[in-house]
Amino acid sequence: MSPMSKVMVTLSQSELNRALVLQRVVDGHLAIREAALVLGLSERHTKRLKKKFLEHGAAGLAHGNRGRKPAHAIPDDVRKKVLQLAQTKYRGCNYTFLSELLSEYEGISLSPSSVRRILQSAGISSLRKHRPPKLHRRRQRKPQLGMLVLIDGSQHDWLEGRGPRLCLHAAIDDATGRILAGCFRLTEDFEGYRQMLLQLVTEHGIPLAIYSDRHTLFRSPKESGTSLEHQLLGQPRPLLQIGRILSELGIERIYAQSPQAKGRIERAFQTLQQRLLVELRLAGASCVDEANAVLKEFIPRYNERFAVPPAEAEPAFRPIPPHMRLEHIFCHKEHRKLNPGYTIHYGGQNYRL
Asked: What is the H or E stretch that residue 192 is in?
């Protein structure tokens, strides 16, 4: 470099302050000890700065790495690939989930904060919604696995237009947040809950209580209207098919009194609508059977990632009694009166017994 060439050096405000103080030292207006007190540095370091200032002027106070690319900087081709994947293959993922997918499927190991910086620099914000301030105290989790199981259905465009809209029927343990059973159906219906409850009981046992909303699949409109006279006579309240199944299994039914009371399972569905949606997209699922196959593989990984240990290790699930035949419980039952001619009427048809 020729002696006449000029180099533009940008100094920070703190470096400019050091230059002003050191100039006063050079001019004889301040002693090294006084300059060290003003700058908040040791006298030894202040002497080193003075030497650089005398040799190179104010430019000598700039950090030596200024203008250099960090050795651990993310390569530009990796940045471009992350941006491209975030807007196509993995669109709709939040920073944490995208970081996990990049590591699992693309071999790109980046922390969520690195992913956040890359996307925010391109003007892409996370789709994760910030929770509003808590307006009520959350109910404490039950202490044992199987003490309370939350069930509900989530109607959503799970296949993103590749197939019909589906409803995810899920059972989630209150104590741990684990998905205990689940299945996809075209609509929220009796068959979906029948399959899901059968899977729950077969794989885990009989829970103590089921927590649901007041959907007419669970609770008949006539149930709350049973007269006092009928109750005093010991006549049972009318039960729908799901209620009958739970009653025959000896499971207590608890109904949510407000939408906020279902917050735990609703938050789980929000997470599933982000993560499971992408898993279905990556698998190319386009029908109910394919979606259920993906769900079966997804549930263990979800539980490993999000489930928490229960307060008590002993589960509350009850074993299925040897005399109980599940096929006689998990079915559709109808009550009919036998006519004098030993016939019954069902579905617009008469049947002779």
From this structure: helix 190-204
113 pLDDT more than 50:
yes
Q: What is the pLDDT of residue 302?
A: 95
204/198 Cα distance (integer angstroms): 10
Q: Lowest-confidence range among 42-46, 102-106, 257-261, 291-295?
A: 257-261
User: In 3-state terms, what secondary structure has residue 166?
Assistant: strand
H or E stretch at 13: helix 13-26
Quote the DSSP letter at residue 50.
H
Our separate counts of H helices and E strands in the chain read 11, 7
Positive or negative, the CA dihedral 213, 219, 225, 228 is negative
Tell me which DSSP letter residue 188 carries: S
pLDDT digits (tens, 9 = 90+) for 279-329: 999 999 999 999 999 999 999 999 999 999 999 999 999 999 999 999 999
Q: Count CB-CB contacts under 10 A for residue 55.
A: 9
CA distance 16 to 295: 60
